[in-house]
Each structure stands twice: as C-alpha cells, then as structure tokens.
Design brief:
Chain lengths: 134, 99
C-alpha cells in the first residue's frame, strides 16, 4: 500500500486512516498500532518541519510481512538528514533541564525494532520495521 | 479527533489523539490553567512528542508557582510513552487500574 501526502500536519488524520486500513486488511496485532502510529508521525513531522526546501509530497509505503509491518517514508528534493543518528536525549535529566526538542526521534529509535536510512539523488528514504511480539 | 475541556471538580478531561496537528489546541487551553492541574487521560487514545511537549511546557510553567500537572487514569500504551520519555520521573502519574 502506498500513498502521497502533502507537507502538512493536517495530513496526520489521513496517515492514521492509511495505517488503520493496512492493519485491518492484514489482520495485524492491534498492540503494534501505537508504535507504528508514533514512528510514522514523528518521521513525517520531522520531514515537514525540517526539509523546508521542498514542496513535493511525501510518499508513505506500508507493507505487512510475516513478523509485523514495514513502513517507508520518502522525501524528494531534500538535503541529507539521517534521523537514525539523531542526538541522544537525557530522559533522566531533572525538569529544569528538560526540553521537548529531539524527543520524537529518540522515541522512534527506542521503540521500533529496526530502522534504515537511504539517501540518493536528493531523495531521503527512511524505513522502519515493527515486529509482532511473540 | 481531539477534545480538551474542564470537567467535574476542576479536572481537565482529554479525549482522542494528541498529535502534532492538535498540539496548538491543547497548548492554547492549558496556557489558561493556573494552580494545580489534574489531567484525566481516560479517553486519551494516543500521544506523540508534540503532545509530550505541551505537557512538559505546561508542567514547567505551573511548577514555577509551586504547582504542576498530575496525570490520572493513564492507560498502559500512554504510560509506556511516558516511561520511555522519562516523564514518569517528572510527573505524578496514576495508572488507569489504580484509580
């Protein structure tokens, strides 16, 4: 399943609808939904927020496999930014030292089972996998 | 869908998905809150880092006057996010089953 989305947070509801569809059609474990929703939103929002030099839509592809679901997001006409090497967040820091920045990618890296980044011909593609818990 | 409103006994009720598209609405509401704030998350289905940022910003502001946010009726999915984020060390959290 693949679909393009405009560079707007308003598209999040449509992305959720896409995820609902693949979960329903593939009979995926509902327990995986929160992680898939979170990782997809954080990566999409990151592209919309920081890849401001592009007006192109963002392509999202989702496919179920034997052990869970694989999701790819491709952004076109952008500079290289590898979210898999995003900075660490000190989640043990006291309140005074905490700021929300960077928390999204931190959560993605913490919660997905694997993640892979490709950059070629000014296309930035991030793929993550969330597996069934057995 | 996302709703936030003042409910019974001054408890703020949150309903739906608190994502990046709804964070401005949530922040606008919570910016008006003063004193101790109790957030009932019984109907909160989902939260992303944008929503966490709203909670963190509001908690820090209220802590400045000796108050803060207490999160009640937190389901285990949301609690996992709080735990991974370290929010379980910053907020008073009451899980859904411990009401």
């Amino acid at each position: 399943m693949k679909q393009k989305f405009k560079r707007s947070f308003d598209e999040l509801r449509n992305i959720v609808a896409m995820t609902e569809t693949i979960f329903r059609e593939a009979g995926l474990q509902a327990e995986l939904r929160h992680v898939v929703d979170l990782a997809t939103e954080e990566l999409f929002v990151n592209m919309v927020t920081y890849n401001t030099e592009s007006d192109d839509d963002i392509l999202i592809e989702m496919r179920s496999h034997e052990h869970g679901v694989e999701v790819s997001l491709t952004d076109y006409n952008v500079n290289r930014f590898d979210p898999t090497v995003a900075g660490q967040v000190d989640v043990d820091a006291p309140l005074d030292e905490r700021a929300p920045g960077g928390l999204g990618l931190y959560l993605v890296l913490k919660m997905v089972d694997s993640i892979h980044y490709e950059y070629r011909n000014r296309q930035s593609k991030i793929t993550f996998i969330v597996d069934r818990k057995v | 869908m996302f709703e936030i409103e003042l409910g019974d006994e001054g408890i703020v009720a949150v309903d739906g998905r608190l994502d990046a598209a709804q964070a401005v609405k949530a922040q606008g509401f919570l910016d008006q809150v003063e004193g101790q704030c109790v957030l009932d998350l019984t109907k909160l289905e989902y939260i992303s880092s944008a929503g966490l940022g709203v909670l963190l910003k509001t908690h820090k502001r209220l802590m400045g006057s000796g108050n803060g946010i207490k999160l009640i009726n937190v389901n285990h999915h949301i609690h996992d996010i709080f735990r991974y984020s370290g929010f379980d060390k910053l907020f008073e959290i009451v899980p859904a089953s411990d009401k």
